[in-house]
Design a protein that fits this description.
mainly alpha; 8 helices; about 170 residues
Length: about 170
């Protein structure tokens, strides 16, 4: 005697399997960027790509954020692979740190700054003001940035003397 059982939609899809497939696709997308970054002597391995996807996923979870795809990670890679302070030996680690910083700032800023503007500011701080120092960038510049964002400023430029205790010049 045949017994009629119906599969529920939830049991039909294995969430872990879907996540694994999704993460594999994210890794593939990240590895595609090697075609551009190789010109600068920078390559991510498959393990590096998996680490970046893990960093992205953890950062999103820690900051209570949701994001489809890895376009933000791709934009960070594309932008920062041109830095004069990033070389093969520190490439993967630096990109991982920048991903964490990006999502943290987006959350702390309550999305008052666009992705593009945040990447522009992060680039300026990293490349110009902090000479490639993540510690200096997170310990000084991004704290100032958050203070300015919470003050509803539209530009994030310090005064000419770079007096970190003063308000930035408003240029807008």
């Amino acid at each position: 005697m045949a017994h009629n059982t119906m599969l529920s939609p939830i049991s039909f899809f294995d969430n872990n399997a879907l996540t694994a497939i999704q993460n594999k696709e994210y890794c593939r997308r990240i590895l595609e960027l090697n075609e551009d970054t190789i010109q600068r002597g920078l390559l991510l391995s498959e393990a590096d790509a998996r680490d970046l996807v893990d960093t992205r996923n953890k950062s999103l979870a820690e900051n209570n954020r949701f994001e489809l795809g890895v376009e933000t990670v791709a934009k960070i890679i594309t932008r920062f692979s041109g830095s004069s302070f990033i070389y093969q030996a520190n490439y993967a680690e630096t990109i991982n740190e920048l991903v964490e910083i990006f999502y943290f700032i987006k959350t702390e800023a309550v999305d008052k700054i666009s992705d593009k503007a945040l990447l522009d500011v992060m680039w300026d701080y990293y490349e110009n003001k902090c000479c490639g120092s993540i510690e200096l960038m997170t310990g000084r510049e991004l704290e100032i940035l958050l203070r300015y964002i919470h003050g509803d400023r539209k530009r994030y430029t310090l005064d000419e003397e770079d007096d970190y205790n003063s308000e930035p010049e408003f240029m807008g």
